[in-house]
Protein backbone atom coordinates (compact mmCIF):
# COMPACT_ATOMS: atom_id res chain seq x y z
CA UNK A 1 0.00 0.00 0.00
CA UNK A 2 1.41 3.43 -0.86
CA UNK A 3 2.24 5.60 2.11
CA UNK A 4 -0.03 8.59 2.38
CA UNK A 5 1.63 11.88 3.09
CA UNK A 6 -0.76 13.76 5.36
CA UNK A 7 1.22 16.87 6.19
CA UNK A 8 4.08 18.99 5.06
CA UNK A 9 6.74 20.10 7.49
CA UNK A 10 5.12 23.52 7.75
CA UNK A 11 1.53 22.51 8.39
CA UNK A 12 0.06 21.85 11.82
CA UNK A 13 0.09 18.22 13.06
CA UNK A 14 -3.75 18.40 13.24
CA UNK A 15 -3.88 18.34 9.43
CA UNK A 16 -4.83 21.95 8.73
CA UNK A 17 -2.49 23.81 6.36
CA UNK A 18 -1.53 26.60 8.79
CA UNK A 19 1.67 26.45 10.79
CA UNK A 20 1.35 25.06 14.33
CA UNK A 21 1.91 28.46 15.95
CA UNK A 22 -1.12 30.05 14.28
CA UNK A 23 -3.23 26.88 14.39
CA UNK A 24 -3.43 24.67 17.49
CA UNK A 25 -0.49 26.47 19.11
CA UNK A 26 -2.75 29.44 19.92
CA UNK A 27 -5.08 27.14 21.86
CA UNK A 28 -2.28 25.26 23.61
CA UNK A 29 -0.73 28.53 24.81
CA UNK A 30 -4.14 29.88 25.97
CA UNK A 31 -3.84 32.81 23.53
CA UNK A 32 -7.23 31.75 22.15
CA UNK A 33 -9.84 29.08 22.71
CA UNK A 34 -11.22 26.78 20.06
CA UNK A 35 -14.30 28.41 18.48
CA UNK A 36 -15.94 25.17 17.35
CA UNK A 37 -15.88 21.58 18.57
CA UNK A 38 -13.95 20.37 15.52
CA UNK A 39 -11.11 22.80 16.22
CA UNK A 40 -11.00 21.64 19.83
CA UNK A 41 -10.87 18.05 18.62
CA UNK A 42 -8.00 18.90 16.25
CA UNK A 43 -6.14 20.75 18.98
CA UNK A 44 -6.53 17.77 21.31
CA UNK A 45 -5.15 15.41 18.67
CA UNK A 46 -2.30 17.88 18.21
CA UNK A 47 -1.73 17.83 21.99
CA UNK A 48 -1.44 14.03 21.84
CA UNK A 49 1.15 14.43 19.09
CA UNK A 50 3.07 16.94 21.23
CA UNK A 51 2.54 14.99 24.49
CA UNK A 52 0.81 17.99 26.08
CA UNK A 53 -1.10 16.19 28.86
CA UNK A 54 -1.89 19.48 30.65
CA UNK A 55 -3.83 20.76 27.64
CA UNK A 56 -5.71 17.47 27.32
CA UNK A 57 -6.73 17.61 30.98
CA UNK A 58 -7.86 21.23 30.91
CA UNK A 59 -10.00 20.63 27.81
CA UNK A 60 -11.68 17.60 29.42
CA UNK A 61 -15.14 17.98 30.99
CA UNK A 62 -14.77 18.16 34.80
CA UNK A 63 -17.38 15.39 35.04
CA UNK A 64 -15.37 12.85 33.02
CA UNK A 65 -11.78 14.11 33.36
CA UNK A 66 -9.31 11.55 34.68
CA UNK A 67 -7.19 12.47 37.70
CA UNK A 68 -4.06 12.19 35.63
CA UNK A 69 -3.06 11.20 32.16
CA UNK A 70 0.00 9.16 31.33
CA UNK A 71 0.84 9.50 27.66
CA UNK A 72 2.81 6.75 25.98
CA UNK A 73 6.03 8.39 24.78
CA UNK A 74 6.45 5.60 22.23
CA UNK A 75 3.18 6.46 20.46
CA UNK A 76 3.76 7.93 17.00
CA UNK A 77 0.64 9.65 15.66
CA UNK A 78 0.68 9.93 11.89
CA UNK A 79 -2.50 11.75 10.89
CA UNK A 80 -6.05 12.85 11.65
CA UNK A 81 -9.11 12.59 9.42
CA UNK A 82 -12.38 14.26 10.41
CA UNK A 83 -15.17 12.02 9.10
CA UNK A 84 -18.31 13.73 10.39
CA UNK A 85 -19.47 16.46 12.75
CA UNK A 86 -22.82 17.35 14.32
CA UNK A 87 -23.59 20.58 16.19
CA UNK A 88 -20.46 22.05 17.72
CA UNK A 89 -20.65 25.46 16.06
CA UNK A 90 -20.71 28.92 17.59
CA UNK A 91 -24.48 28.50 17.91
CA UNK A 92 -24.44 25.15 19.71
CA UNK A 93 -23.69 24.02 23.25
CA UNK A 94 -23.04 20.37 22.34
CA UNK A 95 -21.51 18.62 19.39
CA UNK A 96 -19.92 15.44 18.14
CA UNK A 97 -16.87 14.86 15.99
CA UNK A 98 -16.25 11.50 14.34
CA UNK A 99 -12.66 10.98 13.32
CA UNK A 100 -9.96 8.52 12.51
CA UNK A 101 -6.59 9.13 14.15
CA UNK A 102 -3.76 7.07 12.74
CA UNK A 103 -0.64 6.01 14.53
CA UNK A 104 2.24 3.80 13.59
CA UNK A 105 0.75 0.31 13.64
CA UNK A 106 -2.96 1.16 13.70
CA UNK A 107 -5.73 3.71 13.91
CA UNK A 108 -8.42 4.87 16.29
CA UNK A 109 -11.97 5.46 15.03
CA UNK A 110 -14.01 7.42 17.57
CA UNK A 111 -17.11 9.57 17.83
CA UNK A 112 -16.33 12.13 20.51
CA UNK A 113 -18.87 14.22 22.40
CA UNK A 114 -18.17 17.83 23.26
CA UNK A 115 -19.94 20.39 25.43
CA UNK A 116 -19.40 23.99 26.33
CA UNK A 117 -18.41 24.73 29.91
CA UNK A 118 -18.32 28.46 30.73
CA UNK A 119 -18.33 29.16 27.01
CA UNK A 120 -15.34 26.96 26.16
CA UNK A 121 -15.58 23.66 24.30
CA UNK A 122 -14.47 20.62 26.29
CA UNK A 123 -14.29 16.91 25.52
CA UNK A 124 -16.87 14.76 27.35
CA UNK A 125 -16.37 11.18 26.16
CA UNK A 126 -16.46 9.03 23.08
CA UNK A 127 -17.65 5.80 21.62
CA UNK A 128 -16.36 3.59 18.90
CA UNK A 129 -18.72 3.31 15.91
CA UNK A 130 -18.62 0.07 13.94
ZN1 LIG B 1 -3.73 22.57 14.23
TrEMBL record:
Residues 37-126 form the YchJ-like middle NTF2-like domain. It holds the Pfam family YchJ_M-like. InterPro entries: NTF2-like_dom_sf, YchJ-like, YchJ-like_M. It comes from the Bacteria. Transmembrane segments: none annotated. Belongs to the UPF0225 family. This is UPF0225 protein SSRG_05033. It comes from Streptomyces griseoflavus Tu4000. The lineage of its organism: Bacteria, Bacillati, Actinomycetota, Actinomycetes, Kitasatosporales.
Amino acid sequence: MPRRVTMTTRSCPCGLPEAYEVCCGRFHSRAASAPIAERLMRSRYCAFVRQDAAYLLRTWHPRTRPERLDLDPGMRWTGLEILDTTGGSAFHTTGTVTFRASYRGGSLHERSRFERVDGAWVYVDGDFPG
